[in-house]
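In this supplementary section we document a worked example of the pipeline. Step one takes a protein sequence of length 320 as its only input; no multiple sequence alignment statistics are reported here. Step two produces a three-dimensional model, which step three serialises into structure tokens for compact storage. The input and output of this example are shown verbatim.
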Amino acid sequence: MRIAVIGGSGFVGTKLIATLLNASPEYDILNIDKQNSARYAEITRIANVLDADSIAAQLKGTDVIVLLAAEHKDNVTPASLYYDVNVQGMKNTLAAMEKNNIKRIIFTSTVAVYGLNKENPSETQPADPFNDYGRSKWQAEQVLQEWYKAHPDRNVNILRPTVIFGEGNRGNVYNLLHQIASGKFMMIGKGDNKKSMSYVGNVVAFIDFLIQHKTEGYNVYNYVDKPDFTTNDLVYHTGDVLGKHIPTLHIPYCLGMLGGYGFDVLGKIIGRKLTISSVRVKKFCAVTQFDSSKAMNSGFVPPFSIEEGLRRTLKAEFGK
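The serialised model returned by step three reads:
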């Protein structure tokens, strides 16, 4: 089985390729990315998802596509890049699949399609994205829906993970854990808002599960590792794993948002993307809790507990 990972040179892609290479001797893995892979250069081919012809040329002989390529950071400018990469990139990938008669695709979408502060949404929750990233991912899903309607013999698996963390990641969870571990952490609000998270080792194992076992139909799965931690829980676990007391300063939500807007203005004035913004404050304080019972009842067994994933991450990044 030849598996093409599109956008596999980043954090999740590198972990996925490692998992797939160890999963089965029958897998023939190809990475297609606009930049080379630091770890898997020998199986990487350079192509941009925005170039349909180059993608199509690289996909000859492929059986399954895992589409990871995405524009996903909070402060991408111009915002049209979200739609260029996430929506047009999907259209280009499907066109390349048509040219090569490829019938299976796994697409990593996001729980951001549900919007903020929804009450533990399952896959049946109507989409209500609050930012361009979520809207562009939802539009990409809609493109995929229409493609499947025209090709009901094809196999589509959509994975909507919540925020992913793990060793080597430099995303929002890392930034939060780094602030907590530094002992200079400032809690905005009470810290009792729950945060659904996903450990990268489990996410990539679930993608392998989909490749092996979900070979028919159109399937959508949230992915969350349970239980959901509050921000206060993360402070406790960080201190426990690292063996240190974590002092925490609490400030009201309204002051936190005011500060976020101030950093928005400052960033525009100096022409730089700052690590603090109103969007990040809003996301930090939001309840981001999602239902993953469908994935957990699918037959998949996560290889790691979320506590183990958090311990591994904290030890690797901040342990001495």
